[in-house]
Request: fold
Amino acid sequence: MSAPLIQGYEVVIGFETHAQLATRSKIFSRAPVAFGAAPNTQACAVDLALPGTLPVMNREAVACAIRFGLAVGAQIAERSVFARKNYFYPDLPKGYQISQYEIPVVQGGSVGFDLAGQPRTVRLVRAHLEEDAGKSLHEDFHGMSGIDLNRAGTPLLEIVTEPDLRSSAEAVAYAKALHQIVTWIGICDGNMQEGSFRCDANVSVRLPGQPLGTRREIKNLNSFKFMQQAMDYEIRWQIEQLQDGHAIQQATVLFDPDSGQTRAMRSKEDAADYRYFPDPDLPPLCIAPQWIAQIRAELPELPRPMAARFVAQYGLPEYDAATLTQNPAMAAYFERTAAVSGQPKLASNWIMGELARRLNEAQQGVDAAALGPLQLAALLVRIADGTLSHNAAKQVFEALWSVPAAAQTPLPDALPDALPGALAQVDALIAAKGLQGMSDTGALQAIAEQVLAANAKNVAEYRAGKDKAFNALVGQVMKASQGKADPARVNALLKQLLGA
Amino acid sequence: MNAAATASTLTSTAELHQMGVAGLGAALGARQTSATEVAQHLLARAQAHSGLGAYLALNEEATLAQAAAADARLAAGERGALLGVPLAHKDVLVTRDFPTTAGSKMLQGYRSPFDATVVARLATQGAVTLGKLNCDEFAMGSGNDQSAFGPAHNPWDLARVPGGSSGGSAVAVAARLSPAATGTDTGGSIRQPASFCGITGIKPSYGRCSRYGLVAYASSLDQAGPMARSALDCALLLTAMAGPDLERDSTSLEHPPEDYSRWLGQPWPGASAAQPLQGLRIGLPREFFGHGCDPDVLAAVHAALAECERLGATLLDIDLPRTELAIPAYYIIAPAEASSNLSRYDGVRYGHRAAEYTDLLEMYKRSRSEAFGPEVQRRILLGTYVLSHGYYDAYYLKAQQIRRLIAQDFQSAFGHCDLIAGPVAPSVAWAIGAKTQDPLSAYLADTYTLPASLAGLPGLSLPAGFGAGHMPVGLQLIGNYLSEARLLQVAHQLQLVSDWHTRTPPPFTHCPKSHP
Reply:
């Protein structure tokens, strides 16, 4: 696919993403990993780099790396090596960061996603395990800096792409796809505000056919919105520089969301010599094939294959399938609703419509939905069998949503027993609200006949060929049914009665 | 202390310092003395001989509390080889009850919130800590003349170095200030001071003793071990010290603890009591017996080897062809690791911080320049250089390759012999100050200890007589991985038929109070 050119320039972007791994303790110590704790309360002797302390690998962090590698089709290195990256900074307690340098644990792999309906693939170079640093706090200390080492030693997986991305939109789509994968497989909570998923974008531009341009690295992009803004600004800036005859200097830049601009932190001349060497405190990380096999067996179905299956198995449109596979809980909710109701498209519509709306309003995840898949399935059954019009179903939905969880009748989990209980609950609501009846063709027909009799003028106009008059009749019937009737059924019934 | 008073039936408590670990353990077990009595006696002795520079820290209150706890266990009927036995720790092993300085101004006044694993393991067995022992700053040195808190003096000649870096440990044991001590050995820092002071010390296989709580110098080489008067005493200490510590030290060996005294007094497998070393093949590396070694040292070593032959051992010449490469390899690898290990001393969280600075960079520079001594600074510079971009392959990587070849040489040698013997150092202890201005000559003196360190093999030094100036000479025994019990068995056989290890430097034979 040819890349979109900007003022004749081709954009080349590579991503480095730090995903904070969802382990209970730190990567090399037993201290807990908790965001927002009082400063320096989540740091033990190892994290403080007290004399005599040593790192010991957190097995769960390795499992996370393996899970990721398998999810992106990468090679899991049977033997990988931890190295020390040496530099001085007050929030780096040991004076070096333990990372992986020459031999990372995850090698290769790729991330697929759709960009404007087109499938795209970005190749990964590697993903490696490393520890996070602490935080320097430059405010509130009257000319001094405070150091909070709670974050020091938090496990990170740094995921590095090839420079395969050709636009800021593609880069953001990649970042979203990667975010979906790491959260889907449960290795990262994906909380970008808290820094659990932060991206560095290496951006360069070139004239088509030319070698790669000099790149500048935009650090610490922690929202998709800023990511796009930062890259767009940087691309424009670089093109302007080149058009003005200036060469691009390799640099690390930060994006300032307030000004919408990037500004250089340090240039290549200031680049530190990190004096990488294998960490003698940590033997090579050797991963047994059996461990990889075990994690492979436990790996959940991934979002893209799942979406493809939804299309094939349930006949859903691709858009629906992609939306329903945003996260595993949503996908599971859909599958259960579809299975119980036997109405996959209806399930998709209601989940993406009413359910999503209510969840957004409540700022809740689907796990916390007041309405379970069984109840939604029961509602869908009553829509499908004609008991409920769409409008009536909405009212039942609202009613189900507002029943406190504690007051709800517990429903059996097993499929054969599940539906009757849920149906009973839904039917009781339908009866209580008097929403039923309109499925009764006789009752609806009586209303329709009354409406036709009382609106002879409209009937005459309709027979004279005025379509508007028919709509007025439908509206009258709907009004008379207090909105309970199904408009499609009303349409059909009126046409039948008018002998159309 | 009622128990102590009633139990004390020794003829003279004034001679308690002449007893070794095994003897004290037995006397304590028989309730002939008490841990408190022994500790008090040795604390008084340490204070009386403070001029030796052996101790950097004493804490009478903590020591006596530990001794009282041991006495309570003894009174309750508990027995153990180390229960109530006093010892002291090299100051690179962190301790809760005593400050830990690593011989550096950088850590002056530093108090660790935890005990090193080896310290804790000894404490669990009821050993009583007398104090912390002087050493070269961050264990970098071979004369204990690089301590920020002054030199330690060789008890055999106060004008000479005790060796290093575990100099204070060797002095304390040799001068009978403590029956035993811990040391650490990175390139010879247990074996060489043991040799210089006429005591016995063993550096175990790399990974045998946990490094948790050992202030790191060169992580891939550092190893703690016991220093005492005899192989027997070393075996008792090592039994407590060694063992896996996988939850704290990833380089700790997953090998169960063992009783290192189990073969002491037994003949070599297949040998008789009359010829207890029959069948033992001792390899003598030609490279250890060349012109680089002083004749007085060689004479003592040969005499000790002749004793081995009399006990039935077979001597054979072997080759360790890369011996001379050990020095350059070591002085690349160890400083490289040290330069990184010592980066944590930045004045931010603990340790020395300069009083005045204008910005962060200046804070780092001043704090580190003020608090690190010249040898430490030299090795940090050296290590930083060899790890620099563009030099890494030429130095560090090449040194690691040499290191592997040296380890292979040993494995080839062990195809022909059961253990390897030779001198520990090419000379006896030198005069304090003699090598301070010439670090290279001090580095060269490490030739015979470095190869086993680089290979991660256990090495033992035991007294083998005296050389020039009536200074002690040590015999080095190097075994294959995890053969510590065999090294101790052979050393013990030699000590059964010799008395070098019982010699006490004359001024320290008696209690200073009775013989002022």
